[in-house]
Amino acid sequence: MNGAISPCCLTIAGSDSGGNAGVQADLRAFHAYGLHGCTVFAALTAQNPHGVSAIHAVPADFVAAQLDAVLGVYDIRALKTGMLADPAAIEVIADRLAAHSEIAKVIDPVMIATSGAKLVSDDAVAALTKRLLPLATLVTPNLPEAEALCGVAVDPSESRAADSTHAKELAARLHEKFGCAVLVKGGHGSGATAVDVLFDGKSFEEFSMPWVADPISTHGTGCSLAAALAAELALGRDLSAAVRGAKAYVHDAIARSYLVGENCGVLGFAPR
Question: What is the pLDDT, as a whole number, of residue 199?
Fold first, then answer.
């Protein structure tokens, strides 16, 4: 075979049968960046923008087989993980990823919904924090997830301040705990703009983006952000540039969202 080898990205996440979130959103982001996407399915879901009606966990040994099929074969420069609900699957993922320090790892610790509801078991959270987060290049919790990972008890009905002081404190604590860069996402904030806080272990940087007025869809934005971050890192961008580019991608995807059914929207995208 002739020709240069193109970089690839890997998603380790669940499938969304509606194509809005999960692996489908990740592949859409990789495609927007002109990157080949590899997949490891950790769960199958029956869902649409109105809710999830069924979840089928993929057995840990098959998760391992998928990882073994792609790691070391494709030129995977970066990866992202989504919701991982099975502790046994998290263990095999961590075992495989520990042997690939050359791959940038964006870990999205999907634990708590916008409503404040817990999405995964305590055992899964324990496996995530003990095995996977210490391997991360960048971890991307939302505010409730960052608080949970730091052991901060907060009333879900409490209005969060528009300033970033709290997010900076959480980011610093998570960096100290796991040794990785931290992006605390501000989508749960109460300000006029969405402010994310990045801490790379040395300095803080804030990224502000205006809300999109009356979007048709925002389903899958968290998955899309983590996937876009992985794509940015795979293309050699530093953390600051990667966050800036990924946020622009998601903002554009929300602004370009469109209807694909009655009261059923999907994020749009444009080539980066």
Answer: 98
Whether residue 69 lies inside any domain: the answer is: yes
The rounded mean pLDDT for the chain is 91
- The residues assigned a catalytic role are 185, 218, 220-223
Rounded to whole angstroms, how far apart are CA atoms 257 and 218? 8
Report in angstroms the alpha-carbon separations of 12 from 41, 67, 222: 6, 9, 14
Instruction: Output helix, strand, coil percentages for the chain, rounded to the nearest 5.
Output: 35, 25, 40
At 199, which CATH number?
A: 3.40.1190.20
- Residue 210 is assigned to a structural domain of this protein: yes
Q: Which of 229, 248, 206, 162 is nearest to 26 (CA)?
A: 229
Q: State how far the Cα of 191 lies from the Cα of 188, in Å rounded to an integer.
A: 9
Q: Residue 36: give the domain boundaries.
A: 8-266
Reported as a single tens digit per residue, the pLDDT across 95-139 is: 999 999 999 999 999 887 655 667 788 999 999 999 999 999 999
pTM over 0.85: yes
Q: What is the pLDDT of residue 159?
A: 47
Q: Is residue 179 part of a domain?
A: yes
